[in-house]
């Protein structure tokens, strides 16, 4: 046991708090006071914006608290206990309107009215002055203030480090009292200001922070010119969960323990033995066509914050189901404010369209057959990009985008090289949407629907309203912001996949069916296209702005988060992804 012993016993300091909770002002959690002392930006993200992400260390922390949280108890009320009775109370929740704070104490031990809080920490005792870091001491200080407010005599607390099984005694002296009160004041003032603190600069704290991919300290600092070095690769845990995509018409999804069971029907309508998928391995559920989900399964998916995306049988994105939604009101407020600013909308839309045209030009340049030289198309797309960057209105920009899209699509015959005998089926004359007039257009429409779904889910997870955009005007049932954000990624994530499945023979002429004036994919072709699309999302690329490698799934998350930083004014210019 390591103890910190003062030379003299300090008097209990009485420092009044200037901002007690009242009315609509919420109580500050003692844990957030710890976070504020550690990193004000982290506390703002968690407390004000409602952000959260798990990593190995947060999981270890929950494991260290499992004993105390499994046995919740309460302290004896005044007059209930004996004067010298031993107190050993676990998971005690105390609140104080006067102090304006609330906290769950892992353990309170003592005798009579003389007690000490014990706070469990994962890991080993740090070899630093006073045997504990300042944020941990401040959290104990907040717990001591709560106990005193409830009539107990408290002079010290204890930090218990689970990995090394050591107890560190923390005396509540004048210095710790000032630090604790200062942290409470600072957190409340920061929350009331409505301004997120700047990120730490090249701090080692950021590398192991679970909110690294949400905060983006290096990326924001780099774009603002505050960083002293290039951004470090994202330290966030690589997501192992993947989408569960179900397209068997008439299938039923139910819940059994920690798994989802997908049951199909045979030709006579009888249930067949289905497949299962573990809930921890699922990032989202994608349903194509007439598929039912039981209420228990839907409840569990919402509890785990796993979104469910609904598509028509042909792949048209209908919408998605989520839980109560993201708590980050600030990002939606900034989004709505910017969406009514015509100047901002035009500037942002110019960047989107210019990036889309640049990526389309790269696609044509990289995929043209050796015997084809689409110089005319490449030169035209270069001029189109320049015109997009100089457009003076959204209507003019729409015209430029249409011209560039027609020019890029006109070069597709020079990009297609399907297996022998399949060429006539893959010779589109022009881009057609509703309905697709040929196999290539059917492929693109299906892939664009998948891309809309990806961006809708990503933006919703980042706190945005996917239905309020800047370039695409709001229309009933249309995710305008998702359509905005997907523009630069049509060539990167949809057009490229269409070329791949055609040129590699993953889909063939017989994989399409004509229905009236339109063409649609058969179930086997949809399965192959979905698999290719998911592989593309998992492909690692070098971020053209920050220089580190990451998969497209993570890249889209970074770009969604950077949009929030841009709307909040932290980043002046939104960085678009335009590979060379």
Written description of the protein model:
The chain has 580 residues and is α/β, with parallel strands linked by helices. It folds into three domains: 28-197, Lambda Exonuclease, Chain A (Alpha-Beta Complex), CATH 3.90.320.10; 242-321, CRISPR-associated endonuclease Cas1, N-terminal domain (Ribosomal Protein L15, Chain: K, domain 2); 330-538, Up-down Bundle (Four Helix Bundle (Hemerythrin (Met), subunit A)). It has 18 helices and 18 strands. It has helices at 30-38, 40-48, 56-64, 66-69, 134-149, 174-193, 212-215, 217-224, 295-303, 329-339, 342-367, 375-389, 394-410, 439-461, 480-486, 490-503, 523-538, 552-567; strands at residues 28-29, 86-96, 101-111, 114-121, 156-161, 166-171, 242-246, 252-256, 259-263, 275-278, 282-288, 292-293, 308-311, 317-321, 512-515, 518-521, 540-542, 549-551. Helix 1 runs antiparallel to helix 2, helix 11 packs antiparallel against helix 12 and helix 14 (439-461) packs antiparallel against helix 16 (490-503). Mean pLDDT is 82; it is low at 1-23.
């Amino acid at each position: 046991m390591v103890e910190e012993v003062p030379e003299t016993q300090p008097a209990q300091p009485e420092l009044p708090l200037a901002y007690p909770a009242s009315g609509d002002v919420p109580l500050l959690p003692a844990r957030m006071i710890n976070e504020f002392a550690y990193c004000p930006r982290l506390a703002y993200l968690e407390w004000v914006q409602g952000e959260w992400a798990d990593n190995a260390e947060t999981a270890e922390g929950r494991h260290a608290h499992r004993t105390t949280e499994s046995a919740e108890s309460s302290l004896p009320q005044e007059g209930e206990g004996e004067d010298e009775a031993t107190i050993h109370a676990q998971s005690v929740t105390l609140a104080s309107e006067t102090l304006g704070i609330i906290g769950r104490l892992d353990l309170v031990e003592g005798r009579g009215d003389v007690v000490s809080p014990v706070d469990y920490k994962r890991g080993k005792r740090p070899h630093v002055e006073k045997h504990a870091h300042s944020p941990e001491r401040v959290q104990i200080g907040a717990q001591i203030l709560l106990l005193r407010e409830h009539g107990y005599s408290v002079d010290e607390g204890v930090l218990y480090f689970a990995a090394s099984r050591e107890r560190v005694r923390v005396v509540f002296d004048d210095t710790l009292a000032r630090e604790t009160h200062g942290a409470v004041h600072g957190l409340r003032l920061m929350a009331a200001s409505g301004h997120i603190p700047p990120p730490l600069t090249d701090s080692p704290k950021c590398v192991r922070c679970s909110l690294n991919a949400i905060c983006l300290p290096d990326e924001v600092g780099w774009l603002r010119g505050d960083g002293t070095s290039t951004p470090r690769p994202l330290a966030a845990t690589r997501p192992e969960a993947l989408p569960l995509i179900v397209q068997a018409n008439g299938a039923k999804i139910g819940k059994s323990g920690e798994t989802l069971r997908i049951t199909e029907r045979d030709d006579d309508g009888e249930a067949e033995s289905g497949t299962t998928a573990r809930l921890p391995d699922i990032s989202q559920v994608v349903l194509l066509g007439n598929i039912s989900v039981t209420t228990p399964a839907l409840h569990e998916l919402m509890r785990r914050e796993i979104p469910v995306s609904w598509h028509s049988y042909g792949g048209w994105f209908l919408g998605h189901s989520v839980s109560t939604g993201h708590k980050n009101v600030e990002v939606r407020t900034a989004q709505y404010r910017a969406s009514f600013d015509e100047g901002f909308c035009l500037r942002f839309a110019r960047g989107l369209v210019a990036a889309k045209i640049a990526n389309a030009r790269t696609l044509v340049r990289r995929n043209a057959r050796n015997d084809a030289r689409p110089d005319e198309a490449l030169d035209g797309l270069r001029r189109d990009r320049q015109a997009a960057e100089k457009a003076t209105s959204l209507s003019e920009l729409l015209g430029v985008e249409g011209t560039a899209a027609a020019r890029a699509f006109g070069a597709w015959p020079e990009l297609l090289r399907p297996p022998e005998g399949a060429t006539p089926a893959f010779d589109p004359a022009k881009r057609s949407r509703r309905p697709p007039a040929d196999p290539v257009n059917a492929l693109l429409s299906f892939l664009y629907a998948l891309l809309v779904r990806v961006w809708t889910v990503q933006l919703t997870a980042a706190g945005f309203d996917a239905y309020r955009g800047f370039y695409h005007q709001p229309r009933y049932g249309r995710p305008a912001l998702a359509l905005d954000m997907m523009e630069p990624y049509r060539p990167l994530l949809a057009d490229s996949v269409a070329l791949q499945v055609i040129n590699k023979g993953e889909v063939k002429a017989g994989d399409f069916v004509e229905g009236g004036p339109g063409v649609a994919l058969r179930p086997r072709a949809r399965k192959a296209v979905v698999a290719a699309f998911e592989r593309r999302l998992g492909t690692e690329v070098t971020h053209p702005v920050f220089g580190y490698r990451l998969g497209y799934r993570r890249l889209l998350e970074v770009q969604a988060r950077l949009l929030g930083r841009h709307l909040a004014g932290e980043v002046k210019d939104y960085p678009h992804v335009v590979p060379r």
